[in-house]
Amino acid sequence: xxxxxxxxxxxxxxxxxxxxxxxxxxxxxxxxxxxxxxxxxxxxxxxxxxxxxxxxxxxxxxxxxxxxxxxxxxxxxxxxxxxxxxxxxxxxxxxxxxxxxxxxxxxxxxxxxxxxxxxxxxxxxxxxxxxxxxxxxxxxxxxxxxxxxxxxxxxxxxxxxxxxxxxxxxxxxxxxxxxxxxxxxxxxxxxxxxxxxxxxxxxxxxxxxxxxxxxxxxxxxxxxxxxxxxxxxxxxxxxxxxxxxxxxxxxxxxxxxxxxxxxxxxxxxx
Length: 270
Known about the structure:
rod-shaped; 56% helix; Arc Repressor Mutant, subunit A; 3 strands; three-stranded antiparallel sheet; single chain
């Protein structure tokens, strides 16, 4: 941001208070000087004010500036002229024909303009590169959208193929189909994935399940003592000793349904 657009004057307090040239001026001249800096702050050329043709009232340039500044400062033209004469004589202000300026403010203005210009060039360069990057990204995106719209208008060659199950999932399906109590499938599947049985472990689980299905506990009272599959897996119950089978392979119990625990009794007894 240019200095003239800022709502404050960059006043260097210590420089102001220790300025030997300014200290030689009267209090009245210093008052005019402070107010004049506010006017110089808003000029097109920061820190300088120029007489226009309409301002040339007299042959005396200082008098002309005094008349011009009296429209902006709370002093009359005579007070302003006396102050300007003193400030110029002590080189606090400088006069070049129709241009009145303050050295430090002009220098700060030039630095500010240079920084603003450099910043704009840098921003333009970044914006240009950003635009190029966005265009490069937008082009394939547009192509994808266009291709997608084209595909929507095309008849699918075939129905979407179902996702193939993993070996772990296939083994779980085999286990769950063989397990006589169908309950808590989600929890059982979670534990199964945690176990992630190898072929050897899977064989051990299925052999243990076959033994359990023939044991006395699982076959009495319509199978109500069969644990949930998640519990059986979590406790690694396939490793248990189920004792002597109470039924043969050909007379294994039908699946136990906790919602209909007497299903097998009804089936047997009509």
